[in-house]
Amino acid sequence: MIVRHMLNQMPALDRLFHALGDPARRAMIERLSRGPAPVTELARPLPMSLPAALQHLGVLETAGLVRSEKIGRVRVCTIEPHALSLAEQWISARRSEWEQRLDRLGDYLNTLDDKGDDDGANR
User: CA angle, 39 as apex, 34 and 43 as ends, to 5°?
Assistant: First the structure.
């Protein structure tokens, strides 16, 4: 059931990782983690034009990481922190799988050590 749920989430997960894969977009997310900000403030520190920054914001919005609203003449962006939970769940599942595999490997290596100790004691 969990696998089916995760497979259904793959397009959203792909969009999320794609959005987070760019340093400019990650910088925007970092800034928004401190609170809402106008588009011009998000674009200011980046080495790009305002239209390019708007394209990056569009990618973040499509991924569900950011929402924006027009307040008067200013477009203000806000982070959507719950959107990161999908990535967190995926990463956590991978970590758990690898921890289980490494635990099994450790158990197997311990049984080899125990057998080696038994062989040495019988000699």
Answer: 90
- Terminal CA-CA length for the chain: 52
Instruction: State the residue range of the domain holding 28.
Output: 2-82
Q: Are 20 and 55 in contact (CB under 8 A)?
A: no
Residue identified by tokens 């197997």 is 108
- The count of structural domains within the chain is 1
Tokens linked to 15: 């969009």
Q: pLDDT for 1-60, tens place per residue?
A: 455 555 555 788 999 999 999 999 999 999 999 999 999 999 999 999 999 999 999 999
HEC letters along the chain: CHHHHHHHCHHHHHHHHHHHCCHHHHHHHHHHCCCCEEHHHHHCCCCCCHHHHHHHHHHHHHCCCEEEEEECCEEEEEECHHHHHHHHHHHHHHHHHHHHHHHHHHHHHHHHHHHHHHHHHCC
Contact, 16 vs 83, CB < 8 A? yes
